[in-house]
Amino acid sequence: MIDETSLLQMMTTIATQAGERLLAVYSPDARPANMQEMLDAARRNERVSSDGTRDALRKLLPDARFVDGENETAALPDDGDWWVIDDAEGSVNHVHGLPDWGVSIALVRGGRPVLAVFRQPVPDLTYTATLGGGAFVNGRPLAVSAKQGLEIAIVGTGQAEAKQAATYSAIGASMTALLGAAFLVKATVPSTFPMLLVAAGHMDAFWQYEPVLPGVAVGSLMVTEAGGVVTTISGDPWAPGDDTILVGAPGVHPAVRDALALLRKTSA
Fold this sequence. Notes:
Radius of gyration: 18 Å
Helix content: 25-40%
CATH class of the largest domain: Alpha Beta
CATH topology of the largest domain: Fructose-1,6-Bisphosphatase, Chain A, domain 1
Largest sheet: 7 strands, mixed
Low-confidence stretches: none
Distance between the termini: 50 Å
Oligomer: single chain
Strand content: 15-25%
Shape: globular
Strand order of the largest sheet: 1-2-3-4-5-6-7
CATH architecture of the largest domain: 2-Layer Sandwich
């Protein structure tokens, strides 16, 4: 059995190698002109980054399974290990010449993330977290913000998957509700980036409706280990498979939860 420290180091190496492959096909001058160009570039990114990644992870833990397809939105069994990966997270940003893209790898054990790595080649950032061992970026400890309340808080949400009209309505209503209470409200993709900003204290809260596990597994552990709070939007403990997630600094999370709870009561 590989100890968690060694396992995290090996995960970091694998994510770094995948990130280098993506960096080799990245250009800050990329400007796709149509949908076909975007799709072609996104498929290239998946192919380039995933080359060898799963095989390398299988060698680390031969009995571990991979979260794919329906498992991305389903509760996971409490037994066994699960790899949760996104070979090219933020690919839409990559193909448009933006820097918010990278490679995420999380290990879920006992129904919750226990190890996490996110490699962002531009600008050379490596985020790591271990359950009970803290969260770090390039070896420096992460810590959520010390803000109290919403009036000076920077908060945000993420876009849902395609063809989810009801979810789009919930996102729009939630942003409207928070625009009247928070200092600043953002909407961005992919979800990992605002969650990393919460863990680093640059943002104060983030919520999402209908998240997929590869988009929130790494970020949820980063926030928890940086001293933040991770729940569902209703305030219950979050677990893989839940249909909402809310992460935030302890002094801001309750106010966002209450604002979103009031929104649910109004729309009921």
